[in-house]
Amino acid sequence: MRFRATSQCLSLALAVALFQPVAGTAAGQTKDAKEQVEAAAQYERGLIFFQQGAYKEAEQAFRQAEKKDEKNLEYQLATADTYIRLHKPDDAIKRYSKIYKKDPTHVRALAGMAASYSEMQHYRDATQMWMRYLTLDLSPTQRDEAQRALRTSQQLFAERYEIAENPAGGAANAATAQQERQWGMEFSQQITASGIPRMPDRRVSDYVQSLCDRLVPVAKGFPPQYEMTVLDSPVVNAQTTPGFIFVYRGLLETVTTEAELVGVLAHEMGHTIAHHSGKAVTKSVQNQQTLTRLQTSQGGVSKFLAGLLAIGNPLGELAFSREQEAQADRLGIHIAYDAGYDPRALASLFQKFESMAPSSRKAWDRMTRTHPFSLDRLNAVNDYVPLLPERNLTTSSPDFDRMKAQLRALPPPPEPVPMPAPAPAPAPSGGGMSGAGAVIPFTVDNAPFAGEMPASWNARKSESGTTIFEGQQGTEAYQATVEMEIAPKVNLRGQSLTDVGQIMVRGLSGKPQASVEPPEPRGDGMRRALAIRATYALQADRGLVAVRHISIVLEYPEHFVILSYFGPTQLFDRYMPVFQQMGDAFRYTGR
User: Fold this and answer.
1) Which domain holds residue 374?
2) 3-class secondary structure, 343
3) What is the DSSP letter of 13?
4) Please, which of 373, 448, 500, 559 could form a disulfide with 590 given CB 3.0 to 4.6 Å?
5) What's the rounded Cα separation, in Å, for the pair 294 and 380?
6) Could you report the per-residue pLDDT of 223-271, keeping only the tens digit for each?
7) Considering the entire predicted model, what is its pTM?
8) Helix or strand or coil: residue 1?
9) What's the rounded Cα separation, in Å, for the pair 319 and 369?
10) CB of 158 within 8 A of CB of 381?
11) 449-454 and 244-248: which strand pairing?
12) Are 566 and 550 in contact (CB under 8 A)?
């Protein structure tokens, strides 16, 4: 009987639930119909105000209509249109975007978004929206108006791109113009001291000088007073520092059009215009100041983080990040375009590199280390260039052809000598962390990571698949080693950061005369990093050698990364600045 009684109660509850909404719906329909009538009246009232130019009153009427009938798209669009007239593009785009997300083919929403972006001076976004709008089924009048709006938007984008790029903005830059110029002079002196000869043929140098002279006036923010030098080196590279441009013969021999050469030079100028080096050294100083604060803190977490910074913080920033490389690409595109050159040549240069067989990339070694290429950058350039107005652009010239002929007639360049890379700019204040000196960037294949290594070191793959960074064989630096292992989580069958740390401990404990400290999982409770310290012995030519070892285990969304620093005990402290600099430069590039 209990089951039957329970069933009856349930049936009664269901009957009550069904009865009440029916009565409520009837009442609701009456109420909704009344509000819809009132909303329509407010909307008509708003239209009158709008036609009279009384946009503030129109806004109030349209918003009242929205409140009474919030599902009516016409009322939302009317309010958004009024916001455009009231110079409130942020409010307008919220309404247009809401409609656009539900229906990407909504004509008025797309046009409204384009107009909003133009009002916000986001001319790149406006151009993209007008292009998208023109793919819709439009009337002849709508298409003509949209094409005129697109041309206007493209022209404003070309003329005022610096508003969106804001080269002086973004990351902090505490370096003064005088300090940046001093850095450029010091690098020039390093070039001279390195023994790299100058180009002996004046005609080649004069050609490159004339090319730079065309770019500098349109490179907004690049120092108008500068020195250009062509170096007689087979290395494929070009570099700029504040006030100086260096072009290597290997680059001149590699490019196949004048526009390709312009693309490289313009990209380099972009780094200087955006003060990327000054921002990098400012970040370094900020890291040092953070370290000082953490070291003086009494908190356990702070002490642990200070220890990470002291031995090399793997979460530090790369000198030229992927974002900075992308910004230099965009600035370079505008410089080349403003000088009358086809900026798509930069993409063709990327394509040339990507299509080369691995065995033929040796000549590009320096260029790819200082400017890591990728298909993403190639695609980004190809997507960006069509946003500029169409115009006749130069690809090559007879002067370029003559320069190439003169190069072919010259004797081969001397064997390359070790080249300096731009050292960090003078610290804006408070000095900076000691480091490894000249460095070259690297990226990681098939994983979202990048970093830097000393320019005089080598990188190789070990049999186990890790990457080994070490000094040149036969030098003292050969004994100092950094090992990088990147392990996809999918291959580790759900193991945690603690599990990975224990694996590291077991591996180190198996070495001769090993002494391994327990892993130090700290932080804000997320346990994102572990520090493992150890000493052990390794067999060398003259017997066992005592080794100091520090591993940092880091957890990222899809990877674990282990950075290990080790070397003979008597040399470890001496190479700590090198380890620190490599740790600071290592960074995650994913999202």
Assistant:
1) 177-409
2) coil
3) H
4) 448
5) 40
6) 888 899 999 988 888 888 888 899 999 899 989 999 999 999 999 899 8
7) 0.60
8) coil
9) 13
10) no
11) unpaired
12) yes
